[in-house]
Design a protein that fits this description.
With 69 residues, the protein is of the alpha+beta class. It has helices spanning 9-27, 53-58, and strands at residues 33-36, 48-51. The protein has a two-stranded antiparallel ribbon with strand order 1-2.
Amino acid sequence: MIIGRWMEYEGFVKDMAVSYRIHVDAYGEKQTTLDRINNDRHYEPTNCKWSTYHEQIMNRRIMKKPTLR
């Protein structure tokens, strides 16, 4: 879910464009993905960062298999 000023593209660009360029310069465009810092929170300026695919994998939730009772 996207909230607040990011409901408009211009708000997202204003918040994330500089950090995007820095990440792309360091890792390349193909290794730049939008990542949530806390997966339990929304996509918002204080909870997003640019990550590589490896960082994304390390930040994922581990889903537990349901147990039968």
